[in-house]
Amino acid sequence: MKRTLLTVTLLAGSISLAACSSNSAKNRTAAELPPPPASSTTTTPPPPPSGPAAGSQADFVASVQSDTIHFDTDRYNVDAQSQTILQSQAQWLARYPMKRVTIEGHCDERGTRDYNIALGERRANAAKNYLVSLGVDASRISTVSYGKERPIALGSDEAAWAQNRRAVTVTVQ
Amino acid sequence: MKRISSALLGVLLAGLGAGSAIAQQQTLPASNAPQAAPTTAAPDDGGLTGSVTGEGAWQDLGVAIPAFPTDNAVPTAADGGNTAALGKNLARVVYNDLKNNGLFKPTGPDALPGIGYQEVAAPNFSGWRARSAEMLVQGFVRAAADGRLTVGCYLYDVGLGSELARQGYVVQPGDWRRAAHKCADMVYSRLSGESPFFDSKIAYIAETGPKDHRRKQLAIMDSDGANHRFITNGQATALTPRYSPDYQQIAYLSYLNGNPRIYVYDIGSGTQHLVLQSRNPTFAPRWSPDGKSLLFSMAIGGNTDIYRIPATGGEPVRLTNTPGINVGGSYSPDGKRIVFESDRSGSQQVYVMNADGADQKRISFFGGRAATPEWSPRGDQIAFTCICGNLRVAVMNPSGGDMRFLTNSWQDEAPTWSPNGRIVQFFRTEKNTGHTSIWQVDLTGLNERKLNTPVDASDPAWGPVLP
């Protein structure tokens, strides 16, 4: 399993060419991915000795491409860029099999409150499902939706809304 | 059914008293003015088609409301300290109810001469005619030995020199405003032909703090903003409250313990319970008209459906079962149907189903998205949020026809009806700053105004008229 997960990061380019809808992303399994190049096992260096404590939230943030993926307006599909990010998260989770995470789903302010709670939950679940498809045990991932209650970008424009439509993976310490 | 003590929750106000004391009706002596026929010209229109488009002539009636005299100025625990000062405050509340809602052309006690106690039931019509008053509201207040207050309210037609209506109320001193609201309701109902609405309350969310760290507290107030109280202290984000029909409980969403769940807060005891123990988020609570059950939405694996559950807890019954987001829900006044929101067609739209979940059909076809539908207490209209460019409050009939916008601002959402179905409240969000405030607008689209709240405010939920 670990070998496969390591491979996935390298294949980001080819995956993004095949940018797929959330539904197909959900169904994608590690087995469907192309075989790994020979050099795959050398591409992920261990964390530097002076860095954050192994397995900590700081280590997670330093190790993964990003703790956050973004979504289009009123959408919850995991796009190619998000897939690469989640692959890096899956890789970290494979390295620390005892670690659990919570995925927080968020929306922009341009929706109604109840619906946004449902939509945030859907986004968090889309991220979770993708991690599970990469081999992360579902029991290690919980989800919570904050709807439009916790924006990080404070403006009322497209750029701010794009930042706020997100799912953030947080390690449970 | 998990009960949590209010102390643990940091609930600020345990034991507000078990609801409101009933404003006991008191039979009043007739005035010496001749009685008008018991019905006014206001028709029982049975629908809004005729009445919303044009203002009734009653809107222009000049109504004089002098201070309510007392037979004996004695100390009282009600505002004013003694019954004479209280009498002026009572008339002020009646005046402000009418004035702030754009009803009639009222003149209040601060702009009128006082009247004697004996004059209440024997009005000086010629004097009021000289002041060009068309309608006259005269009342009195008396304190009993046990402190209870009797408030009388008479409505006269000055031109005809006749009495149109009278009511008396016996209230505890702490409920003195309710007597004034009942009086304003009597005046409004008699002159407009509409059902009363002033003697009612609003639950809402009080907001403070910066946009990315909003503190959101459950709060309640009377329909005129008085008797404001915070219920929760804001440590856990509170959202989307709904008063039970008897005002004894409030269902709302709380992030207590980190996850969004619906709680029912009991006002009398200051305790609350989780409606459903679940690993899944529960949100968007809505009471049935009889107060016995709640609709709620629950997301399982990212898929949200609407359920019904006894308000005291129990087994949930699933009402929708489609992929996507089915959320919200609002009963028709007879409890037989439910209007709700679903994105099963690809975007948020409004649907209607039977109360058991059967016969689900989409009714909104306007372009844009349609969300947060709320069935009018009169049954003839559905208010909703139109997400069409900006967010705007609109109404349509239960078949989806006759859609009309009531507001036109950057972001107005979450309509709630006045008890008589004539006014819609909603909340408005300011672009960039994220400041929120509660507003209301008539079904005519007129008389839009902001409610005064101590801090920013959202998610208003207007309850029924108190008994």
Automatic annotation (TrEMBL), chain A:
HAMAP family: Pal. InterPro entries: Bact_OuterMem_StrucFunc (IPR050330), OMP_bac (IPR006664), OmpA-like (IPR006665), OmpA-like_sf (IPR036737), Pal (IPR039001), Pal_lipo_C (IPR014169). Residues 23-57 are annotated as: Disordered. Residues 1-25 form the signal peptide. PANTHER family: LIPOPROTEIN YIAD-RELATED (PTHR30329:SF21), STATOR ELEMENT OF FLAGELLAR MOTOR COMPLEX (PTHR30329). Residues 33-51 have a biased composition (Pro residues). Part of the Tol-Pal system, which plays a role in outer membrane invagination during cell division and is important for maintaining outer membrane integrity. Keywords: Cell cycle, Cell division, Cell outer membrane, Lipoprotein, Membrane, Palmitate, Signal. This is Peptidoglycan-associated lipoprotein. Residues 58-173 form the OmpA-like domain. It comes from Novosphingobium capsulatum. It is a lipid-anchor. The keyword Lipoprotein applies. CDD domains: OmpA_C-like. It comes from the Bacteria. It is found in: Cell outer membrane. The Tol-Pal system is composed of five core proteins: the inner membrane proteins TolA, TolQ and TolR, the periplasmic protein TolB and the outer membrane protein Pal. They form a network linking the inner and outer membranes and the peptidoglycan layer. Belongs to the Pal lipoprotein family.
